[in-house]
Design goal:
Isopropylmalate Dehydrogenase, 18 strands, 5-stranded antiparallel β-sheet, 15 helices, 2 domains, Thiol Ester Dehydrase, Chain A, alpha/beta, 11-stranded mixed β-sheet, elongated
């Protein structure tokens, strides 16, 4: 419960209320409010829940249910003015304009008339947005309480809305209006890897070039009802040859991105990091998981959880710089980077704390650019302002990190998969620091995860096309 929230609710009786008395409530519309109202009411009008439809609708964006605003009027009447014991009699409201996500409504309820014979009160009701524009107006009639009531405010359970489809659509929207990019898909020889490539193609993200044993790819497609008509296939005899051929297509400029199929990560990455025929740059090749976690207010990057096993300090510099560069491509101007350890203090007993201190000083000296670094930070301090405050940590990063830098591949891989399987996070996985973006997800990941990763790769490829941009 917020510190400003009263512990008790207390009514104002019929005799205590005078004509002209009023009460106010402020509330900001959040995406979860729309989703919860839709679930509760069954109103799934696409204007409220379908981002793609909303873009072409009258308002050009998702808007809240009109009746959401009326429930705020009910909240004032039922909890404060008059409060407990109030019985709704009638309501007449006019809706003047929509409420968009982020709009703040000020609800004002004013006593207009009182009827002593039945203890009814008529209230004028008004809702205006943050610009002072009228959203709702009208009247409500209630039977007001005659006895004084004071009750302990009930603490309601937290409600988490986990709409994977909506979050998936939002992640795909980061590359909205961009043309699809040619992408080599290395060895898509199981259901999810092939379906992910096809789904990304159908979403307008990529033009896939399937690299693998043609007969096997076609058999998987037929067995699972996946339409691959019109898609190009480069026939190879086995997974190692698939990796070699897919990397060669990237190196020769025939495609702009690479995606791992059903082969082992080591098979693909050994070709990528080859000093003679691979896709190396001057930057160390690293990996980032991009996680959309329902309980966290914005996307969260975890690095490196897939490639560098026990990275030394110099490698961590590239791990961080690659992640910062990606965050900026995704629109985060100054990413907040939390360098994780088991503790928040620097100690020679934990190398990760020494590395964190060095990395922060390197950022101060311009050896890492474009981000705001802090560490060492334990995981709770990195993502929870309450935990950080409790431990006395004053930091612009603590509690609001955009990027989590893990000490090693074991801790990072466990963290990422815990968020995915226990936290219902929607994940995207990419390799950074190579000549082209590389979609690298687990073989157990769904087609949606692979397609979401393709959206990020598409954005990266288009940014690379822009002169002067990496």
């Amino acid at each position: 419960m917020d510190q400003g929230t009263p512990t008790y609710i207390e009514n104002r009786t019929f005799d205590e209320i005078r004509v002209g008395d009023h009460a106010r409530l402020l509330r900001t519309l959040r995406p979860d409010d729309i989703h919860l109202f839709a679930v509760m009411s069954g109103d799934v009008n696409p204007s409220h829940v379908d981002v793609e439809y909303a873009r072409s609708s009258q308002f050009r964006e998702v808007v809240g249910h009109s009746m959401w605003g009326s429930t705020l009027i009910s909240a004032v009447l039922g909890t404060e003015f008059p409060g407990p014991g109030t019985v709704y009699v009638s309501q007449s409201l006019n809706f003047s304009r929509p409420v968009a996500i982020g709009d703040t409504l000020t609800i004002t309820v004013t006593c207009r008339e009182k009827y002593a014979h039945n203890h009814h009160i008529v209230f004028d009701c008004l809702a205006v947005n943050q610009d002072g524009l009228k959203v709702i107006d009208g009247t409500a009639e209630v039977q007001a309480p005659v006895d004084k009531i004071r009750r302990k405010r009930m603490q309601l359970p937290e409600v988490t809305i986990s709409d994977r489809e909506l979050r998936y659509g939002h992640l795909l929207s980061i590359a909205a209006d961009l043309s699809p990019i040619p992408m080599a898909v290395a060895h898509p020889c199981d259901r999810e890897s092939l379906r992910g490539a096809v789904q990304a193609a159908e979403s307008g993200l990529i033009e896939p070039l399937l690299v693998g044993p043609e007969a096997r790819i076609r058999a998987v497609a037929e067995e699972n009802g996946i339409g691959i008509a019109g898609l190009r296939i480069v026939d190879t005899p086995h997974s190692h040859a698939s990796a070699e051929a897919a990397v060669a297509l990237c190196r020769d400029g025939k495609v702009e991105a690479l995606m791992k199929g059903s082969l082992h990560t080591d098979e693909l990455m050994s070709e990528v990091v080859s000093k003679t025929t691979g896709l190396r740059t001057e930057r160390r090749i690293t990996h980032v998981f991009l996680a959309d976690v329902p309980s966290y207010p914005h996307p969260l990057m975890i690095t490196d959880a897939a490639i560098n096993i026990d990275p030394p300090l110099e490698t961590k510099v590239d791990i961080i710089q690659n992640a910062i560069d990606l965050a900026q491509i995704l629109g985060v101007a100054l990413p907040k980077v939390a360098i994780l350890s088991a503790v928040e203090t620097v100690t020679s007993k934990l190398r990760s704390t020494i590395d964190a201190a060095c990395l922060c000083k390197m950022a101060d000296r311009g050896q890492i650019r474009g981000g705001l670094l802090d560490g060492p930070l334990a995981f709770d301090n990195a993502v929870s302002m309450v935990a950080a405050k409790t431990k006395g940590i004053v930091s612009a990063v603590a509690g609001n990190a955009d990027i989590l830098v893990v000490p090693d591949i074991e801790s990072g891989n466990m963290l990422a998969k815990q968020l995915e399987y226990f936290g219902n996070a929607l994940m995207a996985g990419l390799v950074l620091g190579a000549r082209v973006p590389i979609v690298l997800t687990s073989r157990a990941d769904t087609a949606e995860t692979r397609a979401a990763s393709c959206a990020v790769a598409q954005l990266m490829a288009h940014r690379k096309r822009t002169p002067g941009r990496a």
